[in-house]
Amino acid sequence: MASMERLNTHQKALRVNLDPTSYGSFAEIGAGQEVVRWFLVVGGASGTVAKSISAYDKEVSDDLYGAGARYVSGERLQTMLDSEWTQLINQLNKSRGSNARFFSFVDTISARNYAGTNEPHGWVGLRFQLQPGGQPNDILLHINLRDPSNPLEQEAIGILGVNLIYAVFYQLETKESFFENIAQDVEKRIEIDYVEVRGAAFEGWDQRAILAHLVCAGLAEAVCFPCSGPPVPPMEVLHKKATVLAPGSFEHVDSDHAAIHNQLLAAGIQQLREELADKDPAPVGYFCFSAMPLREADPPPGISELLERIDALHAHCGDVLLFRDRELYSMTAFVNRYTMQPIRFALGLSLLIRVWEYRYNDLPGSFLEALSRLLPRNVRIYAYPMKSKDLHRALQSISATHWQWTDTNGWVSARELHPPPPLDHLYDYVLASNFLVPLEIPTALKTQE
Predict the structure, then answer these.
(1) DSSP per residue, 93-146
(2) pTM of the full predicted structure?
(3) pLDDT tens digits for 8-28?
(4) CA angle 46-34-127, nearest 5°?
(5) Neighbouring-strand partners of residue 405
(6) pLDDT score at 1
(7) 223 to each of 210, 261, 274, how far by Cα in Å?
(8) What is the pLDDT of residues 118-151, one digit of tens each?
(9) pLDDT tens digits, residue range 394-443?
(10) Cis peptide upstream of residue 120 (ω within 30 degrees of 0)
(11) Burial class for 414, CB neighbours closer than 10 Å (0-12, 13-18, 19+)
């Protein structure tokens, strides 16, 4: 039966040590040996720790795990896990296999460097048996380290590792809170933005639902759902990339709305491609929406509803970033972790007006602070035109009827949009300074109606 008692890290490590059936190895690279240290200092470590290793030198690491893969990557983690598990089983299965639930814990971490110039992150993996002689099960995590110093990051990794080992042995039955248990006491210090599980212990666990849960539970700021291929950590698709984000709620999943969404994102990507030099890599584009409700009074959408929206975007070949927060300035801050290349938001006029109308009561500087956070040097907004009748209907739904505009052949561009005072002065400045870039009406749409 799963333990419902909330134990601290010391108590968890000690319980594992005093359990005569758990026995395994530790291989930790990049942030000390903070996980195994807990088991060594709480007492009874000889009942749990078969081996501890930390291969910091690259030549040593290559000799153990092979060359070729990046040292902090999912591929490297998998190689470490396979190597450590094979060695553990080959050496100890004959003598201990009938009584021990073997496990191998591995991690490869890029903790904060001395100059503080890197983005601290890492991969954590655990292979384990639920009963002696049982088939192995795997859980792999990608984490982002949010502490301000290397020693604090090491400390947080130690806690996370103990939590993970404890959770697979004693808390697997609490599926709803399993990842909250892994993140216990480091919720604000470590983000988990990717999870992969394998084996009978995780039968019925859906990876996409897990990733959405990480966002809904506040354990990740964002997770990534490519339309082709399996999910990946956001870092892997955003690193040093020029990026177009098409935010929205995407509550409507019909084909007509999907066509509009695709036109908007494609127009944003094309506009950014024209701004970049010919030698620059092509920009990447993502639909993005929040796990929070569009209106504060509404309940948050359920995970099944979030996945339904993602599926609808995937049906039209759209890659998706699911964010925790709804504010666009939070998305700016997140993507700027991984790239200083141009970032562009491609959005319709109705969403642009929502950005201008929102009160931002959580910020001391209200809308002015939100705008300054949204638009650092490498960020611009591409405003996609709307039909006048659609804009009128959209503004009625958000009670923003005091905005005015003119139109051209029934279409409204950002240049023809006029906020009420005093917002009009700020709007004109952002427009004139090229922070707000009006997109042209696509030729194919001009002829419609």
Answers:
(1) HHHHTTT-EEEEEEEEEEPPPTTS-S--EEEEEEEE-SSTTPPPEEEEEEEEE-
(2) 0.93
(3) 999 999 999 999 999 999 999
(4) 65
(5) 417
(6) 40
(7) 10, 20, 28
(8) 899 999 999 999 999 999 999 999 999 999 999 9
(9) 888 777 778 999 998 899 999 999 999 999 999 999 999 999 999 987 65
(10) no
(11) buried
Torsion of CA 138, 164, 76, 110, to 10 degrees: 160
Strands 284-290 and 320-323: parallel
Q: How far is CA 194 from CA 144, 227, 405, in A?
A: 10, 16, 44
CB 13 within 8 A of CB 42: yes
Q: Please give the backbone phi and psi of residue 429, each rounded to the nearest 5 degrees, phi first.
A: -65, -45
What is the C-alpha to C-alpha distance for residues 413 and 349, in angstroms, rounded to an integer?
A: 8
Main-chain phi, psi angles of 289, to 5 degrees: -150, 170
Beta-carbon contacts of residue 298 (< 8 Å; ≥ 6 apart)? none
Residue written as token pair 């992150």? 121
- Residue ranges and CATH numbers for the domains of the chain are 9-205 (3.90.950.20), 234-446 (no CATH)
Distance between CA 55 and CA 51 in Å, rounded? 13
